[in-house]
Design goal:
The complex is a heterodimer.
Chain A: E1 2-11, E2 14-24, E3 29-33, H1 40-47, E4 54-60, E5 63-64, H2 70-73, E6 78-81, H3 93-101, H4 109-115, H5 117-121, H6 132-144, E7 150-154, H7 162-179, E8 182-186, H8 190-194, E9 199-204, E10 207-213, H9 214-218
Parallel strand pairs in A: 3-8, 3-9, 6-7, 7-8
Antiparallel strand pairs in A: 1-2, 1-4, 4-5, 9-10
Helix pairs in contact in A: 3-6, 6-7
Chain B: H1 2-27, H2 35-52, H3 57-71, H4 73-79, H5 85-104, H6 126-149, H7 151-162, H8 164-169, H9 174-200, H10 210-223, H11 230-245, H12 252-273, H13 288-303
The chains are: A alpha/beta, B mainly alpha.
Chain lengths: 227, 304
Amino acid sequence: MFEVQNLTARYGPLVAVNDVSLSFDTGIRMGIFGHNGSGKSTFLKCLVGGVRDVSGAVDFGGSPIVPDQVHRNVMLGIGFVPQVQNVFPNLTVEQNLHIAGSKSDSSFLKEAYALFPLLRERQDQLAGDMSGGEQQMLAVALALMTRPQILLLDEPTAGLAPAIVKNVLGSLLRINSELGTGLILVEQNVLAALDIVERAIVLKGGRVVFDGASEELRAKEDLWAWF
Amino acid sequence: MEYILTVMVLIGINVILATSFNLILGYGGLMSVAHPIFYAIGAYCSGLLAIHLQIPVPLSILIGAAIAMVLSFGVSLPSLRVSGDYLVIASIGFQLGILHVINNLEFTGAAGGLTNIPVLNEGPSRSLVFVLLIAVVAACAVLLVGWIVEGDYGRAITAMRNDEEAFSALGRNAMNIKIVLFAIGSGMAGLAGALYAHYFAYVTPEQFGIFTSAALLTMVVVGGAATTWGPLVGAVLLTTLPQAITFLGLPVSIMAPLQGVIYTTLVIFFLFARPQGLTGGSRGGGGLEAWSASAAFRARRRAE
């Protein structure tokens, strides 16, 4: 269970997330949406302690999320996939997976390959030589190697072709159904993401302006006015 | 003969310095240029301990290296908060600050330098024995760094250099790796400084300034950053080259700046023509390409 109480996050004088309170179960599929600068990526980072200047409280399973201690917070059972810097280009696919696995359970390597057969085929390839979609798959597999209860993904489909977007989102849905791992997605690609999430949050100016079922958001005639 | 042995001692010391600098800068991607100050700390601490406390020279050498290792926190702690250009600035500040202290303390010999440092060994074969010793220490330094960067720990260092945020997101502690890299690298530089002090028996603050940082950077870049043998090749080349040009018989007014011109030209040439250095492979084999890979990679991902 994630509990967020009166969370405010700042970058210097700029308030990126403003007094947000939310709670959600670990098995949830939730999308966080909003226009550029709405605070959605910052909010996601706060869930894993990636922002230093915060007030309020974030708890995961009864344990406090400590700001600026990402490496400790993820070991509570939170997988975090950053938007861009999410694989190690100088290492092969297998070496990437071992970096993640060496801190947790490397026996999960076989399961990761079962989830992403393409990664097994490319295990000796440098991650930096893979396509954007393949790297995104690897990034998700890396996060899964820490055996998280919930995955936080910052724009996992950014810059990908529509066919690849469908593939990546389909993989995420499979992870949720097969492993029971929760998904929190920050996405610009709202319509595609609404297909796989059950709850939607819309942020504007760092505040929550919508919190409800994904179908409720999709049904809004003025959907695009929200973004 | 004595001249050749002295040059060989300098080569050995520069191999230790360049190899340890490569561990921090090349493998770790930690943009600190303050490496010569740990060379200075080792030299001064060991020299002062031997002069004022009459500590046996071998022991003072080890203590000097240990002090350099401990004082590496002066750079590794800022590196936990800042990186890249900011770490360069922080490390320059640390280097110049310590040099300023050395320059103004009476017991360090101030700007005139520390003299009458007891030598490690004496006798007719003094230089030859010292060359053998420094060769063994330099070989151990190269092998130690090679051993550190192999295997799981080496891959973790590469991953941290590639991307710290992604590394932390996998539950790995980048802070520990940075502290270990700085401590080992700085301890090795301190050892090199202590050996230098107890061979030449004299050190001055000007030996440990920004010019030495530039010389070490050139050795690493020319030889091949993030390669095992690159710093060795760079150190041999960049130590013998300035010695060789002294035989050209040029006036001092030309000789003095010529060394700087050579270093600058080599760095610029290798940046553009062979960023992997002399020993780096053509693909993923180290050098500046390995250094800059994550930056280029991120830029490409953003463009996509």
